[in-house]
Design brief:
This protein is mainly α. It is built from seven helices and two strands; from the N terminus they run αααββαααα. The protein has two domains: 3-63, no CATH class; 73-157, no CATH class. α2 (15-34) runs antiparallel to α3 and α2 (15-34) packs across α4. The chain starts with a helix and ends in a 15-residue tail after the last helix.
Length: 172
């Protein structure tokens, strides 16, 4: 059996739709219950009680449909798209680095601007890739891409050799 068949069999058995989300929420609820004040007594059964309560809560959580879609499928889509966002952001950062640009120089050291820039890039990349977050036509996405490209060129040309926009070298 090859690896693709193995993954397909896991999917058909409900591993991704039920088992993994159930384990995820079992652990989350167990950790929360371990810190709960009502289970902080000196009884030796507190861990067993926390496991039973966490298992029951995990079953209810996994069974909860989100807009008619099973919760496991929602989680699979969410984590899948999160991976796409992270990959898109890393590709942009690598391209900027290969071009000799540093994100700290572009944002002036502001973490807020850096975060805003990365979120904007991720939204644009995923929107163009067809992620249903923003519904625009292909022509609109192409226009946005060209506008950003032209704006980037103008900012790049308007900066001095250090890359800081608006700075001009001192004339002596």
């Amino acid at each position: 059996m090859d690896f693709n068949s193995f993954l397909t069999n896991l999917n058909s058995m409900g591993f991704y739709d039920f088992v993994l989300p159930w384990i995820l929420f079992l652990v989350i609820f167990f950790v929360i219950l371990e810190k709960a004040p009502f289970l902080q007594s000196d009884t030796s059964k507190k861990k067993q009680i926390a496991i039973v309560i966490a298992a029951i809560l995990a079953f209810f959580t996994v069974n909860f449909p989100v807009n008619g879609i099973p919760f496991g499928i929602v989680l699979s889509n969410m984590f899948g798209w999160t991976g796409v966002y992270v990959a898109a952001i890393l590709v942009v950062i690598l391209f900027l680095g290969m071009g000799g640009l540093n994100l700290g120089d572009i944002t002036g050291g502001s973490k807020f601007i850096l975060g805003l820039l990365l979120v904007l890039i991720a939204i644009l990349v995923l929107g163009y890739a067809g992620f249903p977050l923003i519904h625009l036509s292909d022509m609109a996405w192409t226009f946005i891409f060209v506008a950003i490209l032209i704006g980037g060129a103008v900012v790049f040309l308007g900066s001095d050799s250090s890359g800081a926009p608006g700075d001009t070298p001192d004339k002596k």
